[in-house]
Amino acid sequence: MAISPWLTNNFVDSCAFDPKYDPEDKAATEIFSLHQEKDLGIIIAHSTQKEIEHPNTPSWVKKEDSGLIYTLPISLTSEEKALLQKIERTLAGSGKRENIIQDARHIFEAQKYGSYFVTTDDRLLNKAYEIQKLCRVKIILPSEFLSIVQSHANTHQ
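Structure (tokenized):
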């Protein structure tokens, strides 16, 4: 059984704040409602905060974002640097590493401090299985995360 999202840190990618399609839009809204009303732990990687500050980010996302906890940039150990590089290589595949540097950092932060990374980014979702083999973080859609949250709701009571 999956680890209870009520007992761990859960990271949310900036694109998961405002998905443009069903059912992810409804799931994202419900996740943030649970965060506000029931204290579901949602954390943003410091590297994601820069994306949320972008001028095209909807104002409601910026408002929701203001009440969330962020990680802080810290120095990495040699083992952590090696893992981050493995995540980068996995995400980049045969593409350019510079195109995935931020995403790799988001995932690294999520695996270091939590158990789930919620996103609607297909590039990340397509590599979810490979990433989970490198580290324990589960990369999932908002609807998948909401399902896990609901399946553990009774343990939160």
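Strands lie at 10-12, 42-44, 69-70, 116-118, 138-140. The chain has one domain: 10-156.
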